[in-house]
Amino acid sequence: MNSISPQHASTRGFQAHLTPSQWRELIAAGSTATFPGHARLLDQGDRRPLVYAIEQGRVRVVYTEPDGHEVLVAIRGPGDLIGEYAQRDRGDHMASVWALENCVATVLHSDPFDRFLRKHRLDDVLQRYMLSKARQGAQRLWRIANLHAEQRLAQLFLEVVSADAARGNQFVPMSQQLIANSLGITRRSINERLSQWRKRGLVRTRPGLIEILDLPALARLASLR
User: Fold this and answer.
1) Would you tell me which CATH number, out of the four given (1.10.3720.10, 1.10.10.10, 1.20.1250.20, 3.30.70.360), belongs to the domain 148-222?
2) Which of 111, 110, 193 is nearest to 148 (CA)?
3) Does the reported pTM lie above 0.70?
């Protein structure tokens, strides 16, 4: 039985459900791959049953609609798996995955991943992890429908920061245009809000990178009011 709680302070994602030795064993079962920022890890529609275990860096998961419009599905980071849905049902990958920054991941083929799950009786653990992702997706849809632009921007920044919280990383490696595309908000609106936040001491910005200076204040902006 696993002794690690899903809320273990120094880990997150699927890794938080494993013991340290199990995570090391999972990493050893695959091959290490490095991806520079903005590189694509997975293609939507790809049928290769590959699973990526993220070790370093954060990624964005993006669904592309038939008309070419992109929808941000999730932000993932160290400890997360990507590609496990297609590996489980042997279907197409449902979204593309892009590196937000330099990333290191272990690439696992289907058979070694299945053997690891069977050896440690982790099928139920994986299912709970996947269900938690589905709940996060439903919450994102609710935010899109109910929160105003400033709240959604704050929520996105919190999501990006929390994806690498174990390292205390308070940088958001996204351009204003990428942020605007991710939220379905105009770049002008993003620029105006970031300008206001800079004056209030919440953030510091430079091209392609935003540093969060006051995380509690950002969390208050993201909350319902």
Assistant:
1) 1.10.10.10
2) 193
3) yes
